[in-house]
Fold:
Amino acid sequence: MSKRTNEEWLEDLRAEGSRRAGALTDLRSRLTRGMLFYLRSERSDLADLPQEELQHMAEDFVQDAILKVMDNLDSFRGESQFTTWASKIATRVAISELRRARYKDFSLEYLTAEGETMPSITSLDIAPQQGPQPESYAERRELLDVLRQGIDNVLTERQRAALTAYTVKGVPIEEIAQRMNTNRNALYKLVHDARVKLKKYIEEQGLTLDYVLDVFADE
Structure:
């Protein structure tokens, strides 16, 4: 694994082709190691989960964190090591997703790692008994309709398939890549572009991402 300065991380992640792919692979490896340590050592509520499930959870969180890191490269000010900054983002993703999905209370097969670009729609569609109260159900259902319209209307067929498989159905990233005859880095780009399009669509409907997330985070 290459050791990079802050400037080299930024340059490599903004590059194209194999240079960028190598940086993404190195960043994913670093963040996954740190995430596994966090889940094993600092989350007592996850202590009874099998190693395989913790690994899968860590990889999902890290994939979401990488999307956020790439979206926010311009905000990195160099006040710490780049990997430290990225690790903090990954930890915030994990805390947010564990709080929203309540992994310790739900079967893992029903969970996804949506990050900040998609709300946790499984509380409505998969586990309604754990879903919102009646007074907020209609509002959430209306927002779900907006999201589905966006997915159907603004995404390409390939973007829709990748985003739905990863974000809604929780299919592991490696399996999606294999099914779509692509690789992890190309799939990352596909999901990233889909999320950018969907965020723009949401805003064009007069909504903000913070509002959508607040509605779905409310329990």
Remarks:
- Residues 6 and 82 are 5 Å apart (CA to CA).
- The domain at 6-110 is CATH 1.10.1740 (Rna Polymerase Sigma Factor; Chain: A).
- The chain has two domains: 6-110, 122-217.
